[in-house]
Amino acid sequence: MRMSRQSRQGPLGSKEKSPLMKRSSIVFLSVFVCASSANAQHPTPTPCPPGVTEISNCQVEGCGSEADAELNKAKNIRSPDGTTPTLRTVQWWKELKNPRGADCRNREKLRELGEGEMMRVVAWALAARAEGPETCNCKLGEPKDTDNHIVLVDSKLKRPTLKVNERHSVTAEFTPRVRLDHPNFTQEKLQSLIDPTWKSPQKPKKGKLLVRVTGRLMFDSEHYCGPFTLKRENDWEIHPVFKMEYCPEGKKCTGASDENWVDLDSD
């Protein structure tokens, strides 16, 4: 199709583009913006350093790109900063706002939204899943060197199930660096409490366990800005988990009291 060169005068004497030219400009601009956003959101990865055989000799920035290196540093914090955790609810967590645009990788902006807060929450744990190699863990693949993804839902739910409730879940993560000091922070330990019939390497499918989770609030920009979305309410996580407690069957446990909670480390 041939584009008309004609134009008509606007109210101030400026030339106004034809409708076809306007549409072409909009399409071009949209493609340009999308391409620019894609480049901004998916930086070129940095090769993992050779010779890294376990998490203890993986650098804290892992082997991510410039933006992902800052995310990896947040994921790889090994111990709490001594701040008293704030007791929160799952509902509060679910209502956290996602950042706008490029702010999803700006850790300073994310801190303004709450990243870094030490928090504690009571929730049903529906699954503990093994994760694979990631740049934060220098692409190591052994279970001891990888994260565990914990599916959490509101403790007010009476009969939650993974199939029905995961889409409205929130996430906590066991990390290999914290595991160096907390050896029970494993899928095998937690998933066996959630579902006593589960056997590794089966996928978690059923069960629930009332837990009290303490850790650092972090925004997972890798999933929000990247192509791999997860089945959950939002991309704010407790990551890393620094303390995990569970309520034994038949006992009453509350968020504000230590009574009856069993520390996963002491079990």
In words, what does this structure look like?
It is a single chain. By secondary structure, this protein is an alpha+beta fold. It has one domain: OB fold (Dihydrolipoamide Acetyltransferase, E2P), CATH 2.40.50. Helix content is 24%, strand content 21%. The chain has eight helices and nine strands. The strands form two sheets. It has a five-stranded mixed β-barrel. A two-stranded antiparallel sheet has the order 1-2. The longest helix has 23 residues, at 19-41. The radius of gyration is 23 Å and the shape is globular. The model is unreliable at 1-42 (pLDDT under 50).
Give the key terms.
single chain, 267 residues, alpha+beta, OB fold (Dihydrolipoamide Acetyltransferase, E2P), 5-stranded mixed barrel, globular
What does this entry show, briefly?
The protein has 267 residues and is an alpha+beta fold. The chain has eight helices and nine strands. It has a single domain, classed as OB fold (Dihydrolipoamide Acetyltransferase, E2P) (Beta Barrel).
